[in-house]
Design a protein that fits this description.
By secondary structure, this protein is mainly α. Helices cover 51% and strands 11% of the residues.
């Protein structure tokens, strides 16, 4: 019988979301996913996991670094929707129909459809 590696074991226990998160924040595989990191991830709701992943993905899209070990990021990152208005990618996202004007904290801006859904933003009519 073949021996199961750590990635396979994590994938079975916590799902592909933790593996995808790890690949996003640590593509060079500097850090291992330990039990505490796995537990911290599993304590997040599915929406919280999605918000964190999306927030970090969009940081990468904007050329911003992601700092820290996976556990530190899970415990200390507080994702918020990003207003793409004025960013270099805004026109591209508009052309691809991936953003809409929506309200966050009382102000309108350009937000992705995923952010609108996850954060429950009000879309401008």
């Amino acid at each position: 019988m073949a021996q199961e590696n750590i990635t396979d074991a994590i994938d079975k226990r916590f799902g592909k979301s933790l593996v995808a998160f790890k690949k996003l924040i640590d593509p060079e595989r500097k850090y291992e996913i330990d039990l505490e990191t796995s537990k911290a991830w599993s304590r997040l709701s599915l929406d919280e996991q999605r918000k964190l992943y999306l927030y970090l993905l969009y940081r990468k899209w904007r050329g911003l670094d992601i700092y820290g070990e996976p556990y530190y990021i899970i415990m200390n990152c507080h994702p918020v929707p990003y207003d793409w208005n004025g960013s270099q990618r805004c026109a591209e996202l508009i052309a691809e129909h991936k953003v809409l004007i929506a309200k966050h904290n009382g102000s309108y801006g350009w937000y992705t459809k995923d952010e609108i859904r996850l954060y429950g933003l009000e879309v401008k009519k």
